[in-house]
Design goal:
The chain is an all-alpha fold. It is built from 6 helices and no strands. α2 runs antiparallel to α3 and α2 packs antiparallel against α4.
């Protein structure tokens, strides 16, 4: 990411490829394992495993935010974010963008 240190950028570049459903499935598996452990009479283990679900969902939320709202790498990515023109661009910036698109 543009405004992050190298370690954070490396971690986010790796984790952005993890689909959101993987986090949801892991959290659901944690809840199911916790219920199974509780049914088997292992209360302390069940509580420990059950607490993984909110932690994993917290990671999933951060991952989704990092993927969705990450800072642009360069000016071209900023002006073409989502390939939609920004309604907040100045007329000069829109003219430069259109001229660049016509050249390419």
């Amino acid at each position: 990411m543009k405004n992050e240190d190298r370690l954070t950028t490396a971690i986010e570049m790796k984790t952005r490829h993890i689909p959101s459903i993987a986090f949801i499935c892991f959290a659901l598996a944690s809840v199911c394992a916790s219920a199974w452990l509780m049914a088997r009479g292992r209360k302390s283990q069940a509580l420990f495993v059950g607490q993984w679900a909110p932690t994993v969902l917290g990671f999933a939320t951060y991952n989704k935010i990092a993927k969705t709202f990450s800072a642009p790498y360069d000016e071209r990515q900023r002006t073409h974010h989502g390939e939609h023109a920004s309604p907040y661009k100045s007329p000069e910036e829109l003219a430069r963008q259109q001229a660049a698109e016509q050249r390419s």
